[in-house]
Amino acid sequence: MGKLAKNTRLNLIMPYPAMIADELAVAIAQKHIHPGDLVLDPFVGTGRILAAAAQAGASGVGIDVNPLAVIVTNAKSVSGGQRRLRDFALELTRKRFPADSSGIRLLMGRRVEWFHPRTHRQIDYLKGQINRAKLPRAALTVVVAVFFATIREVSYCRKDQWKLHRLSKASRNAQRVDVKQTFLRRLSQVINSFEVPTHNLYKFRAVIGDSKRLSHVLSDQGVKFPIDCVVTSPPYGDSKSTVQYGGISQLCLEMAKGILGLKALDYCISGIDANCLGGKMSLDGKLYAIPKRIWAGDLCTSIGKRVAQYLDDMRSVCEQIVRVLKANGKIVFVVARRNVGGATLNLDLWFRSEFEKLGCTLIEWTTREIKRKLTPYLVVPKARSVSCETEMSAVPTMRKEYILVFSSPNHLTRASANFERPIPSRRQSRLPQ
């Protein structure tokens, strides 16, 4: 393989919390992934790792509990369809979007407005135009991904973080957005990206599923075992104590209700955060011992119980990864140490311990400064940033990433013999409906 592109395909199509750095995804693919490999990302996010793997000549599958992440990832794998997208964009430029705000109410279950009434009406009009276009599924996947990005941009959400907080009243009053122009600008950027010639077909897809049941999800999707390489940047905690994966995603998905043709939009969206690791308290008072070198916090507090639940859920994922991976396959995790409950959670040390318990061998451990962060390096309670490092209540956030590379055991678990037999595919299309 020649030198890979510096960026992955459509890397800026949709903002998303805690995305792996584009250059890091490419570097990992170039070093650890080979042409013909089958790559798995059990926490796919917006698919940067799978896109980088595809540029290295591999195929891939990603799993995520968030329907928005799955749709955005699948949009990146679309090949062709530029003409239909251009035609749709041209049709839309000729449409006159409504300028009034009559008949608009609060979103169901919401206590405050997240859009100017006029903006809300224009969004509804845009959804109607998308349905009337009767786009093929691949083109529709791209359009819906662009729709998500448009919703975030024209909403009252603060754009400097991922908790679902509104702009100040003054900022809301000063906001002037045009749904039509915002959507067309973003769609044009995507179409222009498709015009760049590529040497590899983007042979990857993402599916909605729980990675704690990894082997079952892959079997249901007709994915052939064993996997050659697992590469991921997992969530560093539950959605309550870290970034809120479901907040803005749920708002975007709510606004997309009524767009026809994508089954991913039919999933229940109210429990995204609850379905993330540590989101459902299932330990039922059982003791989960965490060594002090991993985390020195108090397990008896509510935060301590969430940390314990998160690690218990992650342990299940690690077991599933080893179960579906081929003998001597590679596992690449990008993690960080974070402050929670007044103590540092050393995830790099925890992952090393857990994978070694499962018979894996650590073959590489490197660190990397986090060069770009959407959130500040210091925060005070309620996620407010601080400008002075001497602030007494300030809590440091993550500054370094740790890249851990493991080799899976020579002899897999009891089910390895079954994994060697391909499972008949239940779906022939590359993109899930």
Structural summary, described in words:
About 35% of the residues lie in helices and about 15% in strands. The protein has about 425 residues and is an alpha/beta fold. The strands form two sheets. Strands 1, 2, 3, 4, 5, 6, 7 and 11 form an eight-stranded mixed sheet that branches.
Provide tags for this entry.
three-stranded antiparallel β-sheet, alpha/beta, 433 residues, single chain
Short description:
By secondary structure, the protein is α/β, with parallel strands linked by helices. The protein is built from 14 helices and 11 strands.
Major beta-sheet overview: 8 strands, mixed
Oligomer: single chain
Compressed to H and E, one letter per element, the order equals HEHEHHHHHHEHEHHHEEHEEEEEH
- Radius of gyration computed on alpha carbons: 22 Å
Overall pLDDT, averaged? 84
| Number of β-strand runs | 11
Number of helices: 14
Helix content: 25-40%
For the termini, the CA-CA separation is 32 Å
Report strand %: 15-25%
- Kindly name the structural category: alpha/beta
Poorly predicted parts: 381-390, 412-433
Task: Tell me the overall shape.
Answer: globular
Task: Summarize the topology.
Elements: H1 22-32, E1 38-41, H2 48-55, E2 59-64, H3 67-76, H4 82-93, H5 117-133, H6 137-154, H7 169-174, H8 179-195, E3 204-208, H9 214-220, E4 227-232, H10 245-256, H11 272-275, H12 302-324, E5 325-340, E6 343-346, H13 347-357, E7 361-369, E8 378-380, E9 384-385, E10 395-396, E11 400-407, H14 416-419
Parallel strand pairs: 1-2, 1-4, 2-3, 4-5
Antiparallel strand pairs: 5-6, 5-11, 7-11, 8-9, 8-10
